[in-house]
Amino acid sequence: MQSFRIGVEREIATGGLAMRKDKEVLKDLGLRKLFLDLLCAYNPVWLRLGLETVLGETLDSVNLRFLRRVAFERVLDDPLISHKFKETKKGLFENPDYIQELGKHTLSKFLMIVMFLDTAKQASLIDHPSCLFQISKKENRLEIKSSQRMLIHFAKEFLSGEGNILKHLGHSCNSYKVVHSQSALDEYDFYVKNISVDLRNGIRLTRVIEILTNNKKRTLSSKLRLPAESRLQKLHNVAVALEEISKHGVQLQFVEGKNVTKALSNRDIVDGVRGRTLTLLWKIIVHWKLNSILSMEDINSEIESVVSLHGKTAESILVASKEAQRHEKAVREIEKEENHLFAQLSTSENSDCEAVEEKIMEWCQVVAAHHGLEVYNYTTCFASGKILCALIGHYHPRLLRTCSTADTNTGIIVSDCANNFAQRKHTLESERHNFDLINDCVQALGCIPLMLPRYDSENIPEHKLMVLFVAYLCSRLLVARDEIKSTFIIQRCWRKFNIKRKRKAVLVLQRFVKPLIPIWRSRTIAAT
């Protein structure tokens, strides 16, 4: 940037680049509006960055009107230049030296802004928003989608005797070259409103894979066909995403019916088959999130550590929990064979996630048993919120005390409670209160997605959602366990050091005082 600035200033000083003398931008309202519209074609976030860098000032807002006023006062005009030249009787605009100096200033600042923003975009200084130029939605807004188009339009309207400004700058200004061009993919809205509809064209799905694989160069997006309006284009885009997913070791298969294994194809996603689309998303979550945030070695060591603290009551509760888990698993297998739709939705993610789910459940069981609670599934057992409160309170007793957890009286299922409607209502309110406490604690802990609504026994959690949440919670609490252990070690070391220091201080005082004790006694006796 420094070499480019020197080259631009040299070219402007020698007259190689000059503003048109027949058009005074600052004086002509139409030209002023056109110049400011050119700058405001940039996204306000990027424009603010460019103005701050070139002008050397910090701007407080990204409001477009504010930035437009800054560009008018500091790019089109300049207080230092106005102060340098004296006004004539007819004003500064009648002073040709002032007009020439102001034109050089405007030209230099504009070219610096364009060059810097093009370079900054190539370096991805700002991840969001991804668009360098504004997405034109208004009919009267200037259509600028590339840095080259910006320079060509500027040269056509404001520069004197300029043919191809790109070649001119490339030859005379140290290989000045702008390359950024905003494509339709850059302007694409990746917001998902309906999973069965919005993932059909494969564009959003491909972008998800790029984010998860940290593909900043977006090599997958370059293979997409846009706009994806025909079925063939959508099939191609989804195939690009599925091919990349399979390269990372994700098995694109699902179990349908009675243990019938089928391959997941791009047609399933394009046709909007909701069950298979959810299967694909769950496989992505398991592969890139669950397996990355959890360490089986840490969980196993923590389970052994908690089990060593169990008494007879906790051991009996743990045995009962595992027995209930085995029974429920057998019932679920029978339901899968009888219910074809359930089999399609549950699919073969069990082969990918079963080990992780069982290990997390084992951790929940040993911690819950330590607090006198049974847990054997991720739905009804977590509906009251008491299990999650016990997990958080076990590792952070100061953050969530056991006494602050509302007693649901009925355990998990409220259908067996008394027929009293008031008691049932109180139970549901207590369960919702527990989830309010959980969300507050999760927010205080950090690094855990806030994905839990206020569940209760009438509105039980969804299995996969709870697995994902408990996995994040387990990962965060195990980190907190290490932090707490480190704190205890530091405290013990400090206390030992402090005790030794106090003992040394006492010994020093004793050595100093002991010789003085006989003198004090003799003086006391003499005084009496």
Automatic annotation (TrEMBL):
Q: Give the main location.
A: cytoplasm
Which terms under GO biological process does the entry name? establishment of meiotic spindle localization; mitotic cell cycle; spindle organization
- Name its cellular compartments: Cytoplasm
Q: One cellular component GO annotation, for this chain's record?
A: spindle pole
- The parts of the chain that form a coiled coil are 317-344
Q: Which GO terms describe its molecular function?
A: calmodulin binding
> Which residue range or ranges hold the Calponin-homology (CH) domain?
145-289, 354-478
Keywords tagged on the record: Calmodulin-binding, Coiled coil, Cytoplasm
Kindly provide the name given to this protein in its UniProt entry: Calponin-homology (CH) domain-containing protein
The root-end lineage is: Eukaryota, Sar, Stramenopiles, Bigyra, Labyrinthulomycetes
